Amino acid sequence: MPDRDLLQGLYLASGLVLLVGYGPQLRQLMLHPDAGVKACPLSSWLLWTGCRVVALMYCAGVVRDVALTVIVGLDVGARLAVLLLLARARARRRRTAGALGAGRWMLLGLVATALLPLLMGCRSRDAGTAAQALVDVTEAAEPRVAWLQRHALNLLLLPLLEGSDDPRWRDPHEVFECDGRLSVLVDGRPIVPGTRVPVPPSTLEWRGEGCALAWGGPLGLSGHATLRLRESPAALMAEVLPEGLVLPMGGVPVRLEGRFLTSALAAASDDR
Q1: Can you say how many angstroms the Cα of residue 130 is from the centroid of all Cα atoms in its chain?
Q2: Which of 49-53, 96-100, 192-196, 257-261 has the lowest mean pLDDT?
Q3: CA–CA gap between residue 31 and residue 29 (Å, rounded)
Q4: pTM, entire model
Q5: Of 96, 81, 99, which Cα lies nearest the Cα of 40?
Q6: 51-65, 88-102, 116-130, 175-189: lowest mean pLDDT where?
Q7: Neighbour tally for 33: CB within 10 Å
Q8: What are the backbone dihedrals phi and psi of residue 101, each rounded to the nearest 5 degrees, phi first?
Q9: How far apart are CA 28 and CA 13, in angstroms?
Q10: How far apart are CA 89 and CA 87, in angstroms?
């Protein structure tokens, strides 16, 4: 029947389109494996792939339709490729965590975060004013504001870094997908992808409108923030000066106002 031949052709074409759809997922996992591990749970992909393997066996052993078997088989192959990249990224994260001692770095980072306001106050010519102006993230009354303060570096800085031993800049327009403009300056100059990240102290200025991380991060980050990076052997630390920085959380726009201090583990800047 012509209708049956037409449907079979359409089904084969849809299978090829399905395979093409795996391309962006595989590309992001290769470029940003660490972020992919967080965004794509390995357990979910194992479950989905297992179900598709059962479907492939059913197609080959019961239905015995060549077109259906080929399409499902190609789908299983693409899912196995995703699983391979996720497993490799998870193995690399475990090796990195074991080498650095995640618990030790976390403890040092927390201690450094607590001591940094005092150290900065001692170095300032007006220690009393500086100590009052800086707000530690633990003092935020609103839990969503405190969360956004704690993760400021994870949202604005760490996605731009590539490598841990010799970190280099990524292209901001590949890291962030924005509805409007995006501008990222380091010490007053645009980022040059592939160049070495300067040793702190340095300043990063981030401006964006409706921005999300390209591999599936929070949506709708808008505004302007200046990050004054501080040198620390245990963690990445910064004084953040937000200007109208807003991130919708649970349908509620959360706005950051006033200077505050935050930190992130140095190991967080490992390869993505």
Answers
A1: 32
A2: 96-100
A3: 6
A4: 0.47
A5: 81
A6: 116-130
A7: 20
A8: 75, 80
A9: 25
A10: 5
For the segment(s) 2-99, the CATH number from 1.10.390, 1.10.3470, 1.10.1060, 1.20.1280 is 1.20.1280
State the pLDDT confidence band at 230, using cuts at 50, 70 and 90.
confident
Copy the structure tokens of residue 174.
Answer: 């590949």
Farthest-apart Cα atoms in the chain, separation: 88
Lowest mean pLDDT among 24-28, 61-65, 66-70, 115-119: 115-119
Number of residues that this document lists for the chain: 272
For residue 158, which of 42, 34, 27 has the smallest C-alpha distance? 34
The string of DSSP codes covering the chain is -HHHHHHHHHHHHHHHHHHHHHHHHHHHHHH-HHHHHHHS-HHHHHHHHHHHHHHHHHIIIII--HHHHHHHHHHHHHHHHHHHHHHHHHHHHHHHHHHHTHHHHHHHHHHHHHHHHHHHHHHSSSHHHHHHH-EEGGG-SSHHHHHHHHTHHHHHTGGGEE-SSS-EEPPHHHHEEESS-EEEEETTEE--TTSBPPPSSEEEEEEEEEEEETTT--S-EEEEEEEEEE--SSEEEEEEEEEEEEEEETTEEEEE-S-EEEEEEGGGGS--
Residue 46 has what pLDDT? 86
The ranges assigned to domains in the chain are 2-99, 102-269
Q: Give the rounded distance of the alpha carbon of 100 from its chain centre.
A: 20
Banded model confidence at residue 28, pLDDT cuts 50, 70, 90: confident
Q: Which residue has the tokens 């040059």?
A: 192
CA angle 39, 91, 159 (to 5 degrees): 45
